[in-house]
Amino acid sequence: MKVIGLVAVNVFKESVRDKVLYSIIAFAVLLIASSLLIGDLTAGQDIKIIKDLGLASISIFGLLIAIFIGIGLVWKEVEKRSIYTLLPKPMRRQDFLLGKYCGLVLTLVINVAVMTAAFYVVLAIMQTVAPPIVRVSWPAPATDPAMLKAIALVMLELMLVTAIALLFSTFSSPFLSALLTAGLWVAGHFNNDLRNFGAVVESPVLAWLARATYYVLPNFAAFDVKLRVVHAQAVPASYVGLTVLYGLTYIVLVLVGAVAIFSRRDFK
Amino acid sequence: MTTRTAVAAMVLLSVAVVGLQALEDRARTAMTPEADAADYLYVQSPAVLKRAALSYDALVADLYWIRAVQYYGGKRLSKGPRNYDLLYPLLDLTTSVDPYFDIAYRFGAIFLGEQYPGGAGRPDLGIALLQKGLRAQPDKWQFAEDIGFVYYWWVHDYQMAGEWFRRASEMPNAPEWLMPLAAVTLAKGGSRASSRTLWSEIMRNADADWLQRQALFRLKQLDAMDGIDFVERIVQQYRDRTGVPPTSWNDMIRARLIRAVPADPTGIPFQLDPSTGKVTLDPSSSLSPLPLAEQAP
Q1: How far apart are CA B11 and CA B21, in angstroms?
Q2: Cβ separation B62–A136 shorter than 8 A
Q3: d(CA B48, CA B65)
Q4: Which of A94-98, A186-190, B211-215 has the lowest mean pLDDT?
Q5: What secondary structure, in 3-state letters, does chain B show?
Q6: Do B65 and A189 touch (CB under 8 A)?
Q7: Of the candidates B58, B103, B208, which has its C-beta nearest A52's C-beta?
Q8: Cα of B134 to nearest chain A Cα, Å
Q9: Domain assignment present for A205
Q10: Could you give the percent of chain A with pLDDT greater than 70?
Q11: Across the interface, do A230 and B58 touch by the CB < 8 Å criterion?
């Protein structure tokens, strides 16, 4: 456990050195600039658009970090040949890999937390300056805490993307890993189409295959409740709980696969 | 190369790039007339757009909404012939990607219903958009009220307007004033007094500033119509007295029938047709055109 912690802290420090957290500044600038400019373009929908933009940006920045840092976690050590000095040390390969994973998740948690804080500050300012007649038309207050549910599910989605990127990075090149991770993320949003595929094909085998793929592929669409929270639609705690359980189970599954591959990989 | 030389070279090259870009723009305009980028709609299928949006559907809907607002505003302000062909597809895409985007249905119906050239002059599409909203949110009384409003204001079908106001009044959380409004519309639909009742209620109960502004604008139009009727009665008095219509407002001022040039509620003087004595709104007035010109006082 101590080894995992040490590797994780090291990954976090490295990401700070690599200026990954600069994305927070980009996020803050984007949000503040939008809140100043967007009012003139949107016919009174600025608060909705700032909420949409904020939630989408948290997700996009996190996704870019998860994919592009995640794919290099193992590859960089191999490329720099530091893996050869690390592996002989009294450390299990699985601890090394899980440490890498936890380090990137820690980076993402801090990134998302700071972005969320900046997001709520901008929304609080907008709430303060908005006239009462404008506030009345909002389906929910600007600083609606229900948006935290969407952000929590975005974080869980990012953790799953990180795990998938790490899995691919254990046996593939960075380019291919990025392609496969991004491809899986996109495919995971088309899950509902796969489920309904049976209704449009005549072959029962094809329909069964599509249905099987639906259950096997990570259902990334399930983590998306951004639209619902912005419109103050209910997101039941039971749904959030079930999605968290699904996400965590999938993450463990992917990490077990990554550990299995990495443990057997020959670095000679 | 020293740092100073590098910076100087970069500044010079940047100026050259900007200058060349400006020249290139001019050259291209000379080759072909400038195409209106806003008139292209690359994605036309709501189903394709919804899938392509992945988990960013709300943000994509915002982009299409901003584009719809810009498109409508751009066309409305353009000097040449106005073509609103893309307005409905843009609003349809917006509301397909985000079915809870209430303002896109409600404001969109106004953009579509408004008489040409101020709007698309397609109240049928406005009604279709609102009915799509009702399918997505069947308990939204505001959409039913807005359908009644489109029938009332632009289609002038007071029977249907009253029917939709009644339907809206029966929906959950509907305000109490809707039922009397339905009754007034069915009984006296088309009168300026019932229009004033409709807009005054909307103004009093508006839950959005744009709706309040819209109601205020329409009430000013009704005031302008009352003003025109009043001034035309005075013009008639002048004719009765002199036997000819006045050639200008000065004739009427000299006859002491009016003290100053009469103006609409925005302060723009009314226009007087010297040959017929007919009084109209100045086309440059922000209240023009008056959509209820055919309505009786």
Answers
A1: 15
A2: no
A3: 17
A4: B211-215
A5: CCHHHHHHHHHHHHHHHHHHHHHHHHHHHHHCCCCCHHHCCCCCCHHHHHHHCCCCHHHHHHHHHHHHHHHHHHHHHCCCCCCCCCHHHHHHHHHHHCCCCHHHHHHHHHHHHCCCCCCCCCHHHHHHHHHHHHHHCCCCHHHHHHHHHHHHHHHCCHHHHHHHHHHHHCCCCCCCCHHHHHHHHHHHCCCHHHHHHHHHHHHHHCCCHHHHHHHHHHHHHHHHHHHHHHHHHHHHHHHHHHCCCCCCHHHHHHCCCCCCCCECCCCCECEECCCCCCEECCCCCCCCCCCCCCCCC
A6: no
A7: B58
A8: 16
A9: no
A10: 97
A11: yes
Which of B66, B100, B209 is closest, CB to CB, to A42?
B66
Q: Above 50 in pLDDT, residue B293?
A: no
Q: Which residues of A touch B207 (CB under 8 A)?
A: 136-137
- Of the partner residues A190, A220, A227, the one whose CB lies closest to the CB of residue B98: A227
Whole-model pTM: value is 0.77
Which residues from B are below 8 Å from A49, CB to CB?
62, 66
Nearest-neighbour CA in chain A from B267: distance (Å) = 26
Is B193 in the A-facing interface, judged by CB distances under 8 Å?
A: no
CA angle, B185 then B189 then B193, to 5°:
95
Give the tokens for residue A40: 């003139």
In this predicted structure, the answer to whether residue A74 has a pLDDT above a threshold of 80 is yes
Using CA atoms of B15, B17, B20, B26 in order, give the dihedral in degrees to the nearest 10.
-100
B216: left (phi over 0), alpha (psi -120 to 50) or beta: alpha
Partner A contacted by B212 (CB < 8 A): yes
In a domain, A170, yes or no: yes
Nearest to A162 by CA among A79, A27, A69, A34: A69
Amino acid at A115: M
Residue B295 clears pLDDT 60, i.e. is over it: no
Selection from A70-79, A131-140, B194-203 with the highest mean pLDDT: A70-79
From B66, which residue of chain A is nearest by alpha-carbon distance?
A42
- For chain B, the average pLDDT equals 86
Number of domain units in chain A: 1
Does some domain include residue A216?
Answer: no
- Asked if A231's CB is within 8 angstroms of B62's CB, the reply is no
Is some CB atom of chain B closer than 8 A to the CB atom of A226? yes
pLDDT, one tens digit per residue, over B112-163 is 998 888 888 999 999 999 999 999 999 999 999 999 989 988 898 988 998 9
Answer whether residue A241 is part of any domain: yes
Q: For the residues A79-106, what does the mean pLDDT come to?
A: 87
Domain residue limits at B100: 40-137
Range of the domain at A57: 2-189+224-264
Taking CB atoms and an 8 Å cutoff, what residues of chain B touch A134? 208-209
